[in-house]
Design a protein that fits this description.
The chain is about 25% helix and about 25% strand. It has 15 helices and 27 strands. Strands 12-25-26-27-23-24-13 form a seven-stranded mixed β-sheet. α8 crosses α9. It is elongated, with a radius of gyration of 30 Å.
Length: about 575
């Protein structure tokens, strides 16, 4: 799918600062004029919309400048990673409309990384430290005070080599020793104070099994993997700014080892995507899943791409939103209303219009024949004539929304009330004649008479009335469950709140309506088909939906509801 197909209304925009840097590198002929990026997720959870921003940047740069973007799984911590996450990441990238050049894994380079570490040890640039993690943290000092050298810092090279080999054996004890780079314990950048390069983990790896027992740390594996692959632009988020000098230092060492200086990757950082009422921490999202606070990673309340896909977001709308907020050097909290506006705008363009009643009350057209069913013509999508039309059955007994009737209505109530006319969409004009209530005073049935000459589309039938209501035939509709979603958290910025994130959950984030009715055409729609329930909002059939038990998820309302939440 082309970028224009993904964003049919996209206009030409100005270049981001990342694109400007890339264009400058191309103009200077760096790396032979090559453009190669990578998207490097850790397979320890499902991708969320924050990752989508990185995906759009990494793949977008490659597409825009005739380069290639590879997918590389950062699988250096086997205790948190598995193949389920790998498969879901592949699906999410494809759903967004991007295509990778190659699929790599950091584990592809375990031997090369090991050999590089051995080279560093032999050069006197790395050593085995047997301090505890607490001792190492304490002797690193503070940003204002230099660190204290480890008592093991000046170990002989041969002893370091022997111990490094011992780290990669089944007998090695987790936490008993680490390999550290010998850099600068007084450097104001804390990442330079003899960073840990390897630690012991005995959990079997999802790809290499039990071959390895010592695994590289992210800061050691990431830049080297970029180098091994030929990445020209390593684009990441702002928290990696202080890591960049270490990234460059290890590349310096690699160039020395390889005996060349004609190529090197360049790290560029941009701001993360943060949303109001949303948590992006994979660790906390995993806790929500494991503690069953949500139904799974693809729960439609989750900020994961699979959750948004299940809820009914289109990939085009996600990309449109990301493009609208742009890329900067400053972190910001983006309003959820901006995302929903992008979803709403896109779904208006591509959704099928169908009829559904979520809070039903019976409407009886008293002067309509008892055993007659008419097929009314409904336009599938007024934004796209090629989507055609479908038929919706009309009968004497209908369901309408309870909120569309008032027995005693104010002057500006233009829906159904005794003595006034409204149009039933795609059908007739009717006049309400009264209602029937139960013993509790609740309206059970509404009565109306129709004008046979007012059928929609009939010549001369378009006399004006102020209200138009949607409806479904009580004799031909299908019962459905509808799930209405609200924000998952009650506070605007849960990530910065010091309370336990579980305390911040919104108890009203899911409301289930189990007595709703949809027209037959809507009942036939499948997950992945975008729907507008007319006058209500945008919806999609859920993965749980079956012909025997229809389930629909509300994607977004027709109008912005977030302003009300904040007031």
């Amino acid at each position: 799918m082309t970028e224009k197909e993904m964003n049919p209304t996209e206009e030409r925009r100005s270049l981001s600062f990342v694109e400007q840097m890339v264009e400058n590198d191309l103009a200077e002929g760096k790396n032979g004029g090559r453009i190669q990026t990578r998207f490097p997720p850790e397979p320890n959870g499902y991708l969320h919309i924050g990752h989508a921003k990185a995906i759009c940047m990494d793949f977008g740069i490659a597409e825009r400048y005739g380069g290639v973007c590879n997918l590389r799984f950062d699988d250096t911590n086997p205790s948190k990673e598995n193949n389920e996450y790998v498969e879901n990441i592949l699906n999410d990238i494809q759903w967004l409309g991007f295509h990778w050049g190659n699929v790599y894994y950091a584990s592809d380079y375990f031997q090369q990384l090991w050999d590089f570490a051995v080279w560093l040890i032999k050069k006197g640039l790395a050593y085995i430290d047997e301090q505890t993690s607490e001792e190492i943290a304490q002797q690193k000092g503070t940003p204002k005070e230099p660190g204290v050298p480890s008592p093991y810092r000046d170990r002989p090279v041969e002893e370091n080599l022997q111990l490094f080999t011992a780290m990669n054996t089944p007998e090695a004890v987790e936490g008993s020793m680490v390999l550290r780079a010998k850099l600068d314990m007084a450097n104001p950048n804390m990442h330079f104070r003899d960073p840990i390069m390897y630690r012991i983990i005995h959990t079997p790896h999802h790809r290499t099994g039990t071959k390895w027992h010592a695994y590289p740390m992210y800061d050691f594996a990431h830049g080297q993997s970029d180098y091994f692959e030929g990445v020209t632009h390593s684009i990441c988020t702002l928290e990696f700014v202080p890591h960049r000098p270490l990234y460059d230092k290890f590349i310096d060492f690699l160039q020395e080892k390889e005996g060349q200086n004609s190529y090197r990757p360049r790290q560029i950082e941009f701001n993360r995507l943060n949303l109001t009422y949303t948590m992006m921490s994979k660790r906390k999202l995993l806790a929500l899943v494991e503690e069953k606070k949500v139904s799974g990673w693809d729960d439609p309340r989750m900020p994961t791409l699979s959750g948004m896909r299940r809820r009914g977001y289109s990939p085009q709308s996600v990309r449109k939103f990301i493009d609208s907020i742009g890329y900067t050097k400053f972190d910001a909290l983006n309003d959820m209303a901006l995302l929903e506006a992008a979803v709403r705008e896109d779904l208006n363009y591509r959704s099928l219009r169908v009829s559904a009643v979520l809070n039903p009350v019976k409407l009886i057209i008293t002067n309509y024949p008892d055993d007659v069913t008419e097929q009314m013509t409904a336009i599938n999508n007024p934004e796209n004539e090629a989507d055609g039309t479908h038929e919706i059955p009309f009968t004497k007994h209908l369901w309408i929304e309870r909120e569309d009737f008032m027995e005693e209505a104010p002057k500006k109530f233009f829906r159904m009330t005794p003595g006034k006319e409204v149009r039933l969409k795609n059908a007739y004009i009717v006049m309400c004649t009264g209602c029937k209530k139960n013993a509790d005073g609740e309206v059970e049935e509404i009565y109306a008479e129709y004008d046979p000459e007012s059928k929609s589309g009939k010549e001369g039938a378009n006399r004006k009335v102020k209200g138009t209501l949607h409806w479904v035939s009580a004799d031909h509709c299908e019962k459905a469950e509808v799930r209405i979603y609200d924000r998952l958290f009650n506070v605007e910025d849960p990530s910065s709140d010091e309370r336990d994130f579980r305390e911040l959950l919104n108890p009203e984030s899911l409301r289930v309506l189990d007595t709703c009715y949809v027209e037959p055409y809507a009942a036939e729609r499948k997950p992945g088909e975008y729907l507008q329930f007319q006058r209500i909002g945008y919806f999609m059939a859920d993965l749980d939906s079956t012909p025997e038990h229809l389930v629909f998820n509300k994607t977004v309302s027709l109008k912005d509801t977030w302003a009300k939440i904040k007031n």
